What we know:
The protein is α+β, with helices and mostly antiparallel strands.
Amino acid sequence: xxxxxxxxAAGGYRITxxxxxxxxxxxxxxxxxxxxxxxxxxxxxxxxxxxGTVYRNLNILISLxxxxxxxxxxxxxxxxxxxxxxxxxxxxNCGNTVEFPGCNLEETLGDIIGRTRFKITGHILEVxxxxxxxxxxxxx
Length: 140
């Protein structure tokens, strides 16, 4: 948590109680929470916090690279701490999500990066399909 707070301060932002609480909820709660989920958790500690405050602070945390917003194509952005490089397998039927660590995307794109002199600063990879249970008619 301290490294996130240090990066927040280094980015020129105050460490407000709301920002600290949002980071704590993201660190301690389930991964892939919506802004509404985060707000509901925060309201247990700070009943007056609004959804607008949560969104404004999430946008700041995203701009600093502390938090990532993930779109699982269900109309709701989910948020997670940017604490490890990983990607997601997302079932289009039930919404089940499986994280998988790392990747070799830059290695795979090596030739085209070299030819175009494209400088990659980051990437997001979500793979969509159907989990085993949703593929099989009897759920096995």
